[in-house]
Amino acid sequence: MTSFEEAETEETVTCLHLTFYHPGQEEKMMFRCLDFCKREQVRADDAAKFGRDSSVCRYSLLDARVSRIQFSLQFYRKLHTSEHGFEIKNLSKKTKLTVNQTELGYLNKIDLPWRCVICFGDYQILAEVQEGEAVDYFETHLHLAETPILQEKCLPSLQPVPENGVSPSFFLSQGKSPTEMDENDL
Question: Where would I find the FHA domain in this sequence (predicted)?
C-alpha cells in the first residue's frame, strides 16, 4: 500500500460563516477588532461570545451601545445522531436579539437555523452553517457586507416553490388545493 492509502481520513470541519453589517461601519469602525481575513478555529466546548468586552468576548464589537456580552453561539451534537448544530443565546439584559423573526429576550436561546439573519440594534449578521464532520472544534469565517443584509439577501422560504413559480399560498388564498400535473399538460 502507498502512504496515500495508509493516511488518516481527512475530516471536514463545520464552518460558521458570519457576515456583518452596520449602517455606521465606515465612520465608527466598530468591526476593527474582527479578523475578516482568515478562518478561525474554536474548540467545540467553548462558547463563541460576541460583545463589547474584549476580555470575555472572543468577537469584540467596539460600540458603547453593544452590551458587554451581547450573545453567544454554542456548538453541539444533536442527541442520537451524528449531526451538529449551534444554539444562540441572548446574553444582553437591555437589548432584544432577533433570529430571523424570532425575538429572544435575556437568556432565551434557540437552535440557529442553517441560514438566518441575527439582528440587534442597528446590527445585521447573516449566519450560514457549512456542515462538517469534526467534533472537537469548528471554524468561524467572518465577512463584512457593504450593503444591508436584509435587503441584499433573500432568505429561503419554508415552503418549496414549484418549477412554475406559483406559490402554494396562491392556491390556498383562492380556496383551491394544488394538483399535480404532467409537464406536457401545460
Answer: 49-121
